[in-house]
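Input structure tokens:
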């Protein structure tokens, strides 16, 4: 009875500690969200979406260049990261299976998942920014894509692995070649899960600032050139929050609020797609 009582006591204590940790985490989460909401709503202005960054010392508002810059960076990152991540995950699930090479690639991919983003920024700086001699939007997109690729690889690998072998065997029995089986059967069956991974990766990179410090930097003017520095929401938040100008600080809070809403929307869509995938199993 002493052993049973001790185990029950440990179980109860563990549940209490885990519950307390959850409550503390939720409190801090809602505190951050409430603070962002309170100050972000106060800084919201229609000119944020229609005008560019105003000069220092004025009372004007405007972040159009930053919004366009962020969308440009994310779009190019998707164009780079999604095909590479999709192909990498497909190779692991459909061709490499459980070979030693596949296990090594999965291990390296897991390491990349936890790699500090600032190191990725330094890496891209060394291979792109330094040889080019200047910062650019394309180098920023490459840095963000490098952060996104491991997430897509892992998700694609896991989702394709969940597709039953019966579907592959049925397609092969009908005479379909491997590439048709993959593109018409397994990709289609795992499409919701793969899209979930893409959205999670997009949410992961949408708020990154450290890689952009070494690659895209920033731009106070409107620009869509991939070969020049470009403005972005994370950089605006970083720079304007430290500025001595009240309207710039308000714009930083407004930008943070919009970024939180964007990530929240992506997370909700990803969770919905993930739930839909689980319902179809």
């Amino acid at each position: 009875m002493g052993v049973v009582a001790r185990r029950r006591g440990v179980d109860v204590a563990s549940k209490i500690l885990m519950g307390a940790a959850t409550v503390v985490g939720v409190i801090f989460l809602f505190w951050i969200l409430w603070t962002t909401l309170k100050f972000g709503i106060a800084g919201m202005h229609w000119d944020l979406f229609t005008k560019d960054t105003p000069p220092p010392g004025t009372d004007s508002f405007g972040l159009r260049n930053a919004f366009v810059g962020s969308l440009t960076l994310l779009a190019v990152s998707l164009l780079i990261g999604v095909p590479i991540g999709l192909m990498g995950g497909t190779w692991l699930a459909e061709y490499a299976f459980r070979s030693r090479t596949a296990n090594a690639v999965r291990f390296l991919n897991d390491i990349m998942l936890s790699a500090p983003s600032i190191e990725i920024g330094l890496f891209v700086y060394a291979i792109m920014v330094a040889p080019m001699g200047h910062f650019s939007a394309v180098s920023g997109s490459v840095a963000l894509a490098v952060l996104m690729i491991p997430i897509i690889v892992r998700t694609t690998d896991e989702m394709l692995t969940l597709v039953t072998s019966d579907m592959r065997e049925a397609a092969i029995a009908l005479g379909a070649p491997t590439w048709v089986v993959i593109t018409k059967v397994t990709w289609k069956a795992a499409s919701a899960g793969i899209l979930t991974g893409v959205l999670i990766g997009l949410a992961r990179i949408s708020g990154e600032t450290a890689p952009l410090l070494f690659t895209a930097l920033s731009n106070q003017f409107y620009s869509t050139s991939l070969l020049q520095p470009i403005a972005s929401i994370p950089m605006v938040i970083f720079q304007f929050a430290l500025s001595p100008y009240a309207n710039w600080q308000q714009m930083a809070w407004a930008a943070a609020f919009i970024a939180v809403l964007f990530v929240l929307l992506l997370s909700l869509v990803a969770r919905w797609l993930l739930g839909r995938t689980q319902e179809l199993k």
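The chain has two domains: 2-43, 48-279. The chain is about 80% helix and 0% strand.
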